[in-house]
Design brief:
Helix content is 44%, strand content 14%. It is of the alpha/beta class and 218 residues long. The strands form 2 sheets. Strands 5-4-1-6-7-8 form a 6-stranded parallel beta sheet, sandwiched between helices. A two-stranded antiparallel ribbon has the order 2-3. Helix 8 links the parallel strand 6 and strand 7 (180-183).
């Protein structure tokens, strides 16, 4: 039996915090403002770039009226550095290859805009996804379940599994009524036991076996 497996991107397949932090630092530098530490920026990730820009502005005292301009400028900085410091989590490439070899169909559902998502996937060598849904692909973004539904629909038929790392991912899976696999080494702030999930894992080498085990239960 094959499955349809949809992955979150940032904090799940890739550690993109260094690039995002660099883009925020460049933005604040040109605004003449003090930088934010990497832990603060990490806590802002998960709801898309416009929301990230809003939180950066609030933290740095930038007036809300400047949100469109700041969001656009932050995107420009991120596009310029995207892939410079980002890296896949250990074992992701091998796990994705094993899943594809077993006949599973794979997709991405991320709140990162689609264009930079595609760019970073190419730069880190993650190819073979049958569908990529970004934060701007539809009018909705996670935790609205519509993007996740769209990603699964693009994969055809089969058991659905969503793999993510955060509170947003857990809520999205819950609202979409699909089994959620929680990668515990990403950007979540809530204890693992407090997030609803079917399986959890800390190393990607475990993922193919967890998928097989779930399919045997169905």
């Amino acid at each position: 039996m094959s499955a349809r497996i949809v992955f979150d991107l940032d904090g799940t397949l890739i550690d993109s915090v260094p690039d995002i932090h660099l883009a925020v630092s460049l933005l604040l530098q040109e605004q003449g403002l003090a930088p934010l530490d990497i832990a603060t920026v990490t806590s802002f990730i998960g709801n898309g770039l416009p929301h990230l820009a809003k939180l950066v502005m609030e933290q740095s005292g930038i007036a809300p009226a400047h949100h469109p301009k700041i969001t656009a400028r932050l995107m420009q900085h991120y596009d310029a550095v995207n892939g410079r410091l980002t890296s896949p989590y250990s074992g992701t490439l091998d796990a994705l290859k094993a899943l594809k070899t077993s006949g599973h169909r794979l997709a991405i559902c991320t709140n990162k805009p689609e264009a930079p998502a595609r760019t970073i996937l190419e730069r880190v060598g993650m190819t073979g996804f049958d569908s990529i849904i970004g934060g701007d692909t539809l009018s909705q973004r996670k935790p609205d379940p519509a993007p996740l539904h769209a990603a699964f629909e693009a994969l055809g038929e089969g058991q659905m599994i969503y793999v993510g790392d955060s509170e947003v991912d857990a809520e999205t899976a819950y609202r979409a009524a699909v089994p959620f696999f929680l990668f515990t080494e990403g950007y979540r702030k809530t204890p693992v036991v407090e997030l609803p999930h079917r399986r959890s894992f800390s190393v990607f080498s475990d993922l193919p076996g967890l998928v097989d085990a779930l399919l045997k239960e169905m």
